[in-house]
TrEMBL record:
Coiled coil: none annotated. InterPro entries: HotDog_dom_sf, MaoC-like_dom, MCH/BMMD. The lineage of its organism: Bacteria, Pseudomonadati, Pseudomonadota, Alphaproteobacteria, Rhodospirillales. Residues 17-114 form the MaoC-like domain. It comes from Azospirillum lipoferum. This is Acyl dehydratase.
Length: 149
């Protein structure tokens, strides 16, 4: 088990790759139920066959959600803090059976005016089993500083 990091434990350039996650039909159906997005491209195989993808695909935000969850399972983790937001691009489809992982790095760091906190920016890529980046972007996090730092 890896140790959760304070702001001071991170270095610009640190990199990590998450464990993998296999997308199933049940995952996509559950996300549709949770989000209320029941667009046929996600749920109806016959309809999806008529689209450029040729098959059902996961919701774009499903991919972002998986990317965020996979980061929390990686060996490089921070103490719980606050997500300040995402800048995220959907580059390709996520299909049933895809095996995804996240590769991320510490892109930048800065202290804040708020005592006890620092901000890290994590450029991240969601990558499928073929090495194709299907989504990418940055996650901005405010994380605790080491006490008395």
């Amino acid at each position: 088990m890896s140790v959760e990091r304070y702001y001071e434990d991170a270095r610009v350039g640190d990199e990590c790759t998450s464990p993998s996650f296999t997308v199933t039909e049940a995952h996509i159906n559950a996300y549709a139920d949770l989000s209320g997005d029941r667009t046929p491209i996600h749920l109806d195989e016959e309809y999806a066959k008529t689209t450029p993808f040729g098959t059902r695909v996961a919701h774009g935000l499903f991919g972002l959600s998986i990317a965020d969850g996979l980061k929390t399972q990686a060996d490089y983790r921070f103490l719980p803090g606050m997500s300040l937001g995402w800048t995220w691009d959907f580059l390709g489809p996520i299909k049933i059976g895809d095996v995804l992982h996240v590769k991320f790095r510490v892109g930048s760091m800065r202290t804040t005016k708020k005592p006890g906190w620092g901000i890290v920016v994590l450029p991240s890529e969601l990558i499928n089993q073929d090495g194709v980046v299907v989504q990418r972007g940055e996650h901005r996090l405010m994380i605790p500083r080491r006490p008395n730092a």
